[in-house]
Target: PIN domain-containing protein
Amino acid sequence: MIYLDSSVLLAHLFAEARRPDGAIWTERLVSSRLIKYEVLNRLHARRLGGAAFDAAVSLVRSMYLLDLAPDVLARAREPFPRPIRTLDGLHLASLMYLRRTERDVQLAT
Model:
């Protein structure tokens, strides 16, 4: 199982030089429900619709999305070893929550 950060999905959609190998999309992918809003927000900011929007929605629908459960939000309110941005903290808290129940969760960021 791979926890996917929104930057990975965006790199794929924008065909950036630093994007994961295509094989990642055949893995079992999971992320916070935030990914949907982060990715669509970036598409709107770049005024991209049509095929890019459809591809984003399709990829997000193929993933397992974690809700921002009370345990996740509680962890996100706590300090991290280094200062991080709010959305990064929510993603890390989601990953930590998932790792308590799943043994082998990798992070793609």
